Amino acid sequence: MATFPEGCALLFGGSGGIGKGVALEFAKAGTDVAIFYRSKQDVAESVAAAAREKGRKATVHRGDVTDPAQVQAVVEEAIAAHGRIHTVVWAAGPLVNQRYLSATPIEEWRHAVDVEVHGFFAAMQAVVPHMRDAGGGSFVTLGSAGHDWWPQRDGMSVAVKASNEQLVKGIAKEERRYRIRANSILV
Question: How would you write the chain as a 3-class SS string?
Fold first, then answer.
C-alpha cells in the first residue's frame, strides 16, 4: 500500500467514469476520499460506499466547479470532514462532442473552458493556502496527450486540457517551495 499523510484525496469529477475509478484506487491504496460531484449524487454515493467497504472514510460534496464560491465551500467541507486535503485530482469535465473546431458552437467552447480551465483554477486557488499551511500536497490533472498529436474532431477537449497542462507547470514552479507538487496524467 502507498503511504499517504492524514487527510483525504479530493476528487473533482469523482462521480464520472474515470474519476470514479481513480477514487476507488485511492481508497484501495489506503487513503480517505472526498468526492466532488455536480449532478450524479447516486453515483457519488455509490463510489463513497465502495470506498467505505475498503475501510476508508469517504464523503460526498455537491457543487458546481464554474462557481468559485461553491468550490471554496466544498473545499472547506472536505477539510472539516477529513482534517486535511493532501491530494487534489482534477477529473471534472463536460461531455465533449466530437466535431471539428470549425463546427463547434461558441457556447460549447465557452462551457468547456469554464468547467475545465476556470474550474481547475478555482480549485487550485481554494486549496493552495490550505496545502501551504499543512506542509504540502499534490495536484493531479487528468489530461490528454492529444495536444501533441491532435486527434481528429477532439480539439475542444484537447485545447482545454492543454491549458490545464500549463497551469500544472505554473503550480509546480510557484508552489514547490511549499512542498506542493503538480502533475498531469496524459491519456
Answer: CCCCCCCEEEEECCCCHHHHHHHHHHHHHCCEEEEEECCCHHHHHHHHHHHHHCCCCEEEEECCCCCHHHHHHHHHHHHHHHCCEEEEEECCCCCCCCCCHHHCCHHHHHHHHHHHHHHHHHHHHHHHHHHHHHCCEEEEEEECCHHHHCCCCCHHHHHHHHHHHHHHHHHHHHHHHHCEEEEEEEC
User: Could you tell me the pTM of the whole model?
Assistant: 0.93
Percent of the chain with pLDDT over 90: 80
Which residues contact residue 174 at a Cβ distance below 8 angstroms, ignoring those fewer than 6 apart? none
Using alpha carbons, select from 71, 18, 21, 65 the residue that is nearest to residue 47.
Answer: 21
Question: What does the alpha-carbon distance between residue 66 and residue 22 come to, in Å, rounded to a whole number?
Answer: 22
Cα separation, 133 vs 154, whole angstroms: 39
Is 180:128 a contact under the CB 8 Å cutoff?
Answer: yes
pLDDT given at position 1: 55
Burial 70-90, CB ≥16 within 10 A → b, else e: bbbebbebbbebbebbbbbbb
Q: What are phi and psi of 88, to 5 degrees?
A: -115, 125
Give the cell for residue 14. 469523482
- CA proximity to 31, closest of 60, 10, 12: 10
